[in-house]
Amino acid sequence: xxxxxxxxxxxxxxxxxxxxxxxxxxxxxxxxxxxxxxxxxxxxxxxxxxxxxxxxxxxxxxxxxxxxxxxxxxxxxxxxxxxxxxxxxxxxxxxxxxxxxxxxxxxxxxxxxxxxxxxxxxxxxxxxxxxxxxxxxxxxxxxxxxxxxxxxxxxxxxxxxxxxxxxxxxxxxxxxxxxxxxxxxxxxxxxxxxxxxxxxxxxxxxxxxxxxxxxxxxxxxxxxxxxxxxxxxxxxxxxxxxxxxxxxxxxxxxxxxxxxxxxxxxxxxxxxxxxxxxxxxxxxxxxxxxxxxxxxxxxxxxxxxxxxxxxxxxxxxxxxxxxxxxxxxxxxxxxxxxxxxxxxxxxxxxxxxxxxxxxxxxxxxxxxxxxxxxxxxxxxxxxxxxxxxxxxxxxxxxxxxxxxxxxxxxxxxxxxxxxxxxxxxxxxxxxxxxxxxxxxxxxxxxxxxxxxxxxxxxxxxxxxxxxxxxxxxxxxxxxxxxxxxxxxxxxxxxxxxxxxxxx
Length: 503
Description:
By secondary structure, this protein is of the alpha/beta class. About 35% of the residues lie in helices and about 20% in strands.
């Protein structure tokens, strides 16, 4: 009995070579719709599925392969005499290879199509054939990954058939794909951030140099259902990325995305180590560098504006891991080529995550992203902040939400000179941030906190060490003590009413 291969693909990359090979190996080719026409137009002998089923494609192609003549040929266990007798009784021939990839639902998401248009990109026949074939991988080779064409051809060429190991691997890829495909459709239809069943549709785009440490493996996956700053970025130059690189890129770009002003942020080990706004990118960088010239070494630099040649010259003067921005001038790119290992990353999408995930042993914690900023600032002291102080307070508060709690940011003149975070109590974070800031500047410093002051010790320490204004969420039962501490020293304090913990 002649072997049969069924081909139905939307992605026709390298298909003709594969199909011609199968014909040479005496396979009868079955196909549907556009794939049938593509093969026929290129001189490949092919039989249309409707000639096998005896039933035409109907409902504008929605129903074409969903038929016992197809699924019986796929699902029959060759070692089961009853199965083989049954398909023979019904005139069904076994199908040995199934080559299917799906309607491009992933690719059509976030493209502005209407719901009615999106629905037509939900593949039904394709997943059905894939799942049937994958279930019967003892007997059937199912191929959904274009990269596996060569593997299958080589094994058939050498051994006359594929190995059970290859068939099992390909079957596993099917269920991996269909689970992500179904998850994307569910995400689209439900439109919920917290559905009953947590679904994921992520695709691996690269293996990473290593994880948090060299002995840990890592890979980078992107969300197939949503866009975001860390998806589809353009890798313009430099060596491979690591786990820490991507995590720090994400943080740095989120910080600069908080601002309408031209902003530069330096990040080192998942912590901002210099943030500043400027009249242009060069000024923003120089001011950010001034905040912490020691920690910025070997760090990641992000901008929310195009990087020009003058800025590139300055960036090249120190060792950096990554420069990330929405665009770069041609002059800047030429200058960066002088440092071949420096990674240059062009961001294409805005920051857009709606939920964040934290993996715990045996589960996931899911929450909505902290994408808000208080619009109800309230001065709670007798002293009122000056316009400049209020500007710096808001600047510092936008940064402090991206620093590990407990978090304190000390700033002036649009520069975050002192950043303290990750401490087990707030006073230590304040001491750390103020000390770092005062190494560089002592005048007109303001302080921001990510959460309320449980005691007046932070307010007292800040006042004693030259802090001229404070912003914090408020909400402690001892708020009045901190207010009193500020009133005693005629320091303005502003409450935001919104906490920004980041553990």
